Amino acid sequence: MHKRLRLLSSLALLVFLFPGLAIAATETLATVTLENGAKVRLNDDFTWEYVILETLPATTSETSTQAATAVTSIALNTTSIINMASKATQAGSQTMTASAMSQAELLKSTAKSGVKVSLAKSEWDDDGRLGLTFDLASTSSEHYVMVEIDITFYDDSGRKLKTETIKVWKAIFRSPDTYLRKGEQRQSRTFWIQGIDASQWTKQLMSLKIGEMNSRM
User: Fold this and answer.
1) Among residues 174, 177, 168, 181, which one has the least CA distance to residue 209?
2) Is residue 204 part of a domain?
């Protein structure tokens, strides 16, 4: 029992020191609420991750019946059909927790295997595309030639919009000076994302997760 408490205390300390770290869960030991209100899930493999999603109540039979009735009156009330369909779609889906939304800046950085990736800036172009630029830093002895991240976007109410996978860092073949090395800080190029409505993304809600990483010694 004492060993498990020490484990939880150690993991909680890591959360405070490295707020950008987020690693996939195995088996959950406990869920802890930090002093800043953020919730983290502590796992049995000495990893942890932010708890940022919650499931909305499932669609009720009454809502389903109302939606079906609305479909039969398509020629009479188009607006009603749209509203019912929206409610049916939202029910049972996942949305960001209130604590995650209030600590949204923490989700704009992530780390794995000694590499940290953080959002540096966001911008919009004249075609309505969202431009994202990232900062990278490494404390690893590995020389990384490719780092991939998943970017999940949420609208201002916390509902998931979509996930984009990008190679945030890609070195030039046989050009060691372009590798991401220990102690180095790099900035990515700007990635242009389509399909995000600026009017629904004023809070800039997003989460980052490092995926595949390739290195050269």
Assistant:
1) 168
2) yes
**What Rg value do the Cα atoms of the chain yield, rounded?**
21
What pLDDT is stored for residue 117 in this prediction? 98
- Examine residue 94 and state whether it is found in any structural domain, yes or no: no
The predicted structure's pLDDT at residue 54: 76
Residue with tokens 């409505």: 197
Contact status, residue 37 vs residue 52, Cβ threshold 8 Å: no
DSSP calls for 73-140 = TTTT-HHHHHHHHHHHHHTT-EEE-HHHHHTGGGGGEEEETTEEEEEEEEEE-TTSPEEEEEEEEE--
Which DSSP helix (H) or strand (E) runs through 7? Answer: helix 2-17
pTM to 2 decimal places: 0.66
Q: How confident is the model at residue 45 (pLDDT cuts 50, 70, 90)?
A: low
**Rounded to whole angstroms, how far apart are CA atoms 83 and 109?**
36
pLDDT at 173: 86
The answer as to whether 208 is a domain residue is yes
User: Domain residues for 158?
Assistant: 104-216
CATH number at residue 198: 2.60.40.1620
Of 113, 210, 105, give the one whose Cα is nearest residue 165.
210
pLDDT band at 80 (very low <50, low <70, confident <90, very high): very low
| pLDDT tens per residue across span 111-136 | 999 999 999 999 999 999 999 999 99
Cβ–Cβ under 8 Å, residues 99 and 50: no
Total domains in the chain come to: 1
Dmax of the chain from CA atoms? 68
Is 161 within the bounds of a domain?
A: yes
